[in-house]
Every structure is written in structure tokens, then in C-alpha cells.
## 1
Amino acid sequence: MKILLDTHILIWTLFESNSLKIKERELLLNPKYEILVSSVSLWEISLKYQLGKLQLENIHPDQLPEEINKMGFNTIDLNISDASTYYKLPKLKHADPFDRMLVWQAIQNKCSLFSKDKAIKQYKNCGLTILSV
């Protein structure tokens, strides 16, 4: 099973692991799951860091790929197909463009999205699978 991490889950995994339940942390370390981090999340983190809306502990955003690799996670780029077909995702009440693109990437790449964002549940009718632990 492939699991795409929402940006806040990535941040919690790297910096605030107590924000995750024990079963969630165990799942992230289980080698039978392919854990994916989107370049969209790294872009979001970098942007929020630059704007001063996000603080990182003793690390800069450009060091995150190495940290992701150390965790044994894989990365997924925003590819041309995902970008050009994004218009097909219905615009529901959730307006955050980063979250919406992660939803679309999860749908297109047949991943379960690991997110605690309750607003994302509205995309289940669009083919989104949300990880529930």
C-alpha cells in the first residue's frame, strides 16, 4: 500500500512525533508500506518558512530531502499529468491549493492520503482514500 503524507503529517513526523498516535508512528516505520512525500509539501514548507509562518528546529527547508531519505520515505514529484489534469478535481469548500494538489496526487497515483484535516474527507466521493489508523 502506498501512503502519501499530508504536509502537517510530515512536519509532525520529523519534528513533533508526539502529535501522532503510537499506531500512526508504527505504521510510518512499517516497511510493508511505501511512504511518499510530495514535492508539493516541500514547496509549501519552503514558502511558509520564507514568510516566517513556520519555524523548523535546527534545519532549513533545503535539508528536508535528506531527512525524508533518512526516514526511509520516498518522494513523489508533481508531474506534468497531475498538474495538467488538476482541473478535474471538483472545487469543494476546501480552498487550500497545496492540500487540493495533494488530494489530486493521491487520487491519480492510487495512494491513501494520511491527513488529520477533516475538510479533506469531502473528497472521498471523488475517489480519495484517506488513511485511518
## 2
Amino acid sequence: MADVLLTTTSTEVAVGSTAAAVASSLLAGERYKFASSTACWIRQGTCIKVTFVAKASLVDGETFTLTLGLSKTPTTYEFDVAGDGVKSGNVQINVSAVTTAIQIAGLARTAILAAQTALNVTDNGDGTLTIEAPDIVMSFSETVANGTFAAANQAVPATAGAGSCYVPANTIVDINGDQGPQLGVIQDAVAGKASATRVRSY
């Protein structure tokens, strides 16, 4: 069988000395060819930025769910506004004694790190959390009625270490969508271009 490049799904970006998302829609079960014009480091996974809201904008019992892997059991986090507990099986985020989105984000970070130890969670100090699942697919869903509460894709952090893979210039490597839908790329102070192209075997 030979690999046929599906060029309509190729994504190319210019990257320099900071992390950039080359692709944020890698499909689970699909293979891709990655290439860069200069030497770089790449890292796969899923990374989202979640924007929280103040307690006044939450309804007791609203939830958000983080699911890891392709068929893993989801973990549901429930906002306890009234301070009277949460539904059986949910992870409690007791917000009854706080008011601001910044405080609620901090409580959510503590709850996530305790319940899902495979995740990296950064409190950005502004009412948002950056949640990263290294080398794995992660999905997010929520039941919060307030539209400000939301999650958006972020570039997966890539460095010369921290689990990144070194790719020499003009070398093609295979990557797998099962290892996470987003691809972070960093080049060491040298500008260039990188691309990820889906392939199909015939």
C-alpha cells in the first residue's frame, strides 16, 4: 500500500521561537505527515482555555465535563452554589463562599488536579484556566447557561523538552490523531514553515 497525501486537509503556518498550533483538528484514527523547513520540536495533545464566570452567573447544579481518550469514562464537575452538595458521581466545586470568576477558576483547578491527575492545569489569574492533556484526546462539554462560560482550543505547549519530539529540518515524520487533536510546534529562534497533512493508504 502507498500513502496518498490528502492535500485539502493540509494546514501550514509560519512558526518562530514561540509555540504555534500547526493543526487543531487532527482526526482520531487518522495518520498525518509532518514536515518543517527548519529543525523544530513538536508535541501532540489537547489544550483548551476555559473562561469561568462569577457565582452570580451560575445556577446551582450546572456542570462541565472533561473526557480523556477515545472511550474513557467522563469526569463531571458540578458547581455547588448553594453549598448543599452535588449529584452522586460528580466532583464538587463548592463556590458558595466565593463570588468572583477568578476565585471560581482557582477552585476548579484544585478539583481538576485532584480528580484527573494526567492533566496539566494552569490558573491564568484572570478567571481562566488552561487545561492540557499531553499526548491524548480530551473533549469538553458543559451545561452552564451563561454564554460567557466557554472553552476554546489553544496551541499545545511545545518546548525543547517536556515530552517534545525533535524533528530535523526537511524531515517527514508520521503523527497519529489518536495522540491528541492539536499539535504544538516550536523552532529555536529560526523562522520557517511547518505543515501537517492527512494521509490515506491504498
## 3
Amino acid sequence: MNALAPPDRAALQLHLAAPDFRCGQIEGRWRLSRVEWPYVVIVISAAPRSNAPEEYAFRFRCDGYPITPVTGQPWDEATNQPLASHRWPGGHQVVPSVFRPDWMGGICLYLPADRQSIVGHENWRTEYPYRLWQPARGILCYIEQVHDLLHSTDYMGTRGAEAATSMAPPPLRAGHG
């Protein structure tokens, strides 16, 4: 007898099978690596940069999905551990303000869609309404934002590759971090 999946896991499975998610996979924007409930690892492509990977893995905590937002952490697929901070995506302004290993010990990204980062940032609800978690879109609203950042002109490759020329990353917006 097969046990039914809990509602949060069933909702995630529906979103991972939805046309918008599948289209992103077919287009090479992201791929599902594995599900180890309540975590899912999704690998997101990055724009070509010198000494940088073609993609980054992120482990998302999904319990309470989709009502509770996910939280995403850069992940090392080979070791199945958090990605070392010098291997996180880096850039000039926006990218380092989102990919902050110093923020909450590196357990999440500094994004309004993240369940950990939204706490204490009530101002984001009015300042960044288009970046908030949307239960109807689910994990797609998060990974699309990450994909966009990794394909922006601000993205310069890994932090380690650009560390010699960059200072500490600025906050998302002055006074909000």
C-alpha cells in the first residue's frame, strides 16, 4: 500500500511537474537535481564568465510549501554540503547584495522571496512587491529571480575569482540590511 505524500510535498511535486517549470528545464535555465524531503536541490544556469561554473546548485527547504516560502542556500552537489563562500556568485552591486555568505550564516539568500530573509524586512512588502513569495507560482518565483541575477550584467562569476578587486558587498538597499 502506497502512503499519500503530505500536502506540502504533493504541492511541490505539482509545481515541479508544471509546464512553466518544465519549460525552464527544456530551455536549460534550470534542472531538478534531487528531492530529499523537505529539501529539493535545483541547479540554475549562469552566464558564461571567466573561471566560473556554468551553473550553481541551490538547496531549498520546502516544508509548509507553498503557503510558507522556501529558503534557498547555495549548495555543493559533489559533497552534498553548503557551498563554500568563496564559490558563491559574485558581482558589482546587486548580485553581491543577494548572495551574501555573511547573511544569517549563509543559510539563505538575501531576497524578499526567501522565508528567512523576509523576517524583519516588512518594508520589502511595499518596496519589492514583485520579488515577494507567491504561493500560486511557488518555487518558480524564487528560481526565476536567481536565474535572472546569474544572467545579469552585474554577475561577474564566483566571489573567489573577483575577491581581489571587490570590497564587502553592499546591502540590497542602503539601510535595509
## 4
Amino acid sequence: MLIDALVLAGGRSTRLGSVPKARLSYRTRTLLENTVAALSAVRTTVVVGDVTAQSLPAEVLVTREEPAFAGPAAAIGAGLHRLGTTGTETAVVTVVLACDMPGVGAALPLLLDQAREAEALRDGLIAVDSAGRLQPLLAAYRTESLATAVAARRERGTLEGLSVFQLIRPLDLRKIAVPDEATADVDTWADAARWGIDNPDIETTSHSPTQTTAKEQK
């Protein structure tokens, strides 16, 4: 079964003082590099966002939502469009991940294994933690179903400012229990500290924090 992936990395990181989450250092990699590395088993990965100064494999594709900072639903739409321009067969499944979950590798093998079971897929699989919280940015969607949801929203207006939960509301998703560490994200410096991530005090903190991040809009 063909599986592609989208990694959303275009938020403003307002609760981190606009320090880009994707560039935060976790162990020997940035958070974005860590997420992309965890997707080594998929066919094609598209990063949606700013990848300046990132060390990514040459085969990773990059795009950006329009306008920039339009939110996670718009980023998903942009990522699907980029996949559609590759000239290759459309994947049955598209995994969608946020770039700021350091422990995501603990859940991906399970998610991918389950996604390959077509009879259990329905419109897709969505991660759920031990407290019952759903994580739509740790999910494997049937590509056709996700593209239909994107098209339906565009027909009704725009994807700009739309949350992922609003986008996927029509979909019949099967819940997949994953370790809590897999869905733990980095929204604040307190979150970062729990993963041993320090504030790099880089110049990007000067960006204007006028919108919420992709994760904050879910």
C-alpha cells in the first residue's frame, strides 16, 4: 500500500515567543528533522512551512500554505496539492503530523501498520492518548477522504483559519491508542523543558505573533 506524509511546520509559535518550533534542537536534530526521520518508511514526505537552515533528505518536498500562517487546514490543502504535482500514483493513505512532537516515533510504527489494513481503515486512523484526547496531527487519513474534505471546505469558502477538527469533522475515523509521549507536543517553554529543549534565544523571536499556531488552532 502506498503511503505519503505531510508534516506541518508553518505556525507562528506564539506561546514560544515566536521562536519557530521546527528549528528547536532535540538531542542531535531539530524537531522538524526528528519528525521527518521518523517517516522513513513512507514513500513521499512533504513539509509545509519554513524549512530555512534545516538538514532534510534531498527527496523531501517543501511547500507553503497561501497565505502564510493561514492555519493547519490550509497547510493540509497545500500539502495535498504538492503531492498531486509529483506525477506519481496517488497514495492510498496520507499521514499528517505536526512537527513539534519529539516522541512521535513511538507511535508511527503502530499507526502505519494499522493503516496498511485497508478493511480497518474507514476514512482513516486518529491517535488518542490515555486521557481520551484525539490528536488529528498524528493521524493516517485515506487520501481520497481527506482530499474530499478539503475540496468540500473550499467550495464553502476558504481553508484559511480553519482548524483540523473542523476540516475532518465529516470523516469516519478509527481511534488508535498510542503512548502519551507520542502526542506530547511543544507549545510552551515549559513543554520544551520537559523534553530537555532550551530556548535558543535566536533572532526569529522578533516575528510578529498575530496568529495562533497550527496546533493551537486544532
